[in-house]
Amino acid sequence: MENGIIRKIKELLSDDSTITQDEVISYIKKNISKVSYDSFLAQKLLWKILGNNALSDDQKIALVQDIQKQYPTEMISNLALFTDYVMNKFRKVNDTIKETIRKNFDSIFMFMTCLNQFSLMKGGLVRYPKDILIKNAFAIWGNIDCKDEYNLILIPDAIVIEKVHVLEVVYLLAMEIGCMYERYEAISYLSEEILATDFKDGKMVFEIGIKDIDYSYGIKLGSEYNLLAWSKRAEKTIPEPEIFEYYKCYVCKKCFIMNIAADEKEWIISMVKNQLTSETYLDFLICRSKKYQTGIYLVSVLLYLYIEYLFVILLSNQGYGVIQINDIKRNCCFGKDMSNMDFQRILEFIGIQDSYKFIGMDRPYFKVKSQIYLFSSLFDTDYNIFEDLRDIIFNQRKSELGEEVNYFGKSVLETCVKQRFRCSGWTALSSSIKVKNTDFALVAWKDGKVILGQVKTAHSGRKPYQLWKAFKTIEKANIQISRCKEAITKDENLLFSNLKREKLVQSRHEIKEIIYMIITGTSYFSMSSDVAVISIEDISNILTLERNNPEEFMDVIMNPISMYSLDRIPEIHDSLLDFDDVQIIYEDLDE
Prior knowledge:
Layout: H1 2-13, H2 21-31, H3 37-42, H4 45-50, H5 57-68, H6 73-104, H7 108-122, H8 127-141, H9 157-188, E1 192-200, E2 203-210, H10 213-236, H11 241-257, H12 262-277, H13 281-287, H14 294-315, E3 320-324, H15 325-331, H16 340-350, E4 356-358, E5 366-368, E6 371-375, H17 385-393, H18 402-423, E7 427-428, E8 433-435, E9 438-440, E10 442-446, E11 449-455, H19 464-490, H20 492-501, E12 513-520, E13 532-535, H21 536-548, H22 550-558, E14 572-578, E15 582-589
Parallel strand pairs: 2-15, 11-12, 12-13
Antiparallel strand pairs: 1-2, 3-6, 4-5, 5-6, 7-10, 8-9, 10-11, 14-15
Helix pairs in contact: 1-2, 5-6, 6-8, 6-9, 7-9, 8-9, 11-12, 12-14, 14-16, 14-17, 19-20, 21-22
């Protein structure tokens, strides 16, 4: 019900809504109480209300006052002040950026060429402000047919230098609103909250604190954990032979034809290897489905585009390269196995489908007619093809993938988890059992121990929304397990009767220990609750530990991160954003 109400509110507040203002206000007032405070923040409904052009200021104020009755009054009041300030600042600065770009550049290609030079001079650009500049440029020229201009663009050095100075100005403006919006995102996705607002010395002052130290601490610690686990895995992991050998051969051939030095060739190969060794077990399962080939086809195409970007960075004096759409299928691994329909489907999932479209910072290239342009300034050194793969595969808005995702979750992931337990000497039921309306996909038995587990495909990239979404999935599973634990504690026959029916035990006394766990696709929240949250990546290591060092098993089950020694523990410190008209004081954890 909540999701339906949120979708309806967004629809009513959209710019193309034909519903009257009174109907919008009436629906929100009637239904806002059915939306949880967390969802209200995460879906940025206050931003959408205050930013709606159809509602008058008086109507917006009345709506906010009504919303304050449903949620914590002071928090909504502070959030409304902060949202209104950030939104107005964003609009004002964004308009300035757009107008400056319009006045100083003649086309998207002139803009991108100068941005390449600016990026080289700066040694790289911060992602969010860079994204703001590019989106504004595409808002100006994105729908214009550039005819033959894109075939070659040569700009005199003196003009490039002049334009780079212009970019310096707008980049600093974008940095300013980027810093503010980063705080707004943190508030929206529950890691921070506004503690106080004030007006001092002609400036608005916002004091922001960490809302849930366990949540923020878990993400930071999980990030450290992921990096360390990846480095351990990379020491032992050999990239999947077929795709690595294919692209290694492709790189060698291209380097030979283009007379590229051996050390530069080895650099490209090492970058490809780093990408492939970052594959997690979850990625492995996605790509090795016997029923669907979408995963491995996506990896192949994404890796091919990544390699072409590496060549652009090495070779292009102009800072951009061009590839033909048809070359992707012809040159990529598994291209011969893809039907034309498969290939078009993959391009659509990536976003390469419109005749003139900037795909976005996650996939930094755009298509003009039958060509794709790769600009070096768009390249993100932090890009990971498997993070991109998971974002595409588990994107619920792509309904075409719904059947594949459901098949993966039920038929692949759960089956593999159970098989890993069986290989370690546990008896794992093929079917789930239900205890007090809670389904346990994993029921495993060994030496008096019973493991009751929920298996969730919850995965997470590093974006605030992705982290929040994964956390809420795990939180929901944890609530279900807590209810079940309470019921089993009150009625000792409840679990026994289920296990006896499955012929695992004959008497209650055989059950010595009950272990609850949540198995997921992410390690970020391994310390988020009293129930063990274990990634599919780690479950084999933990089961191996149980077999070899049973006395440590329970410690690691409750704290998977303890398998590794982390170099440091993040600490809280105060940070300050000080601009002409606003000061933002906020708590932060060490990077």
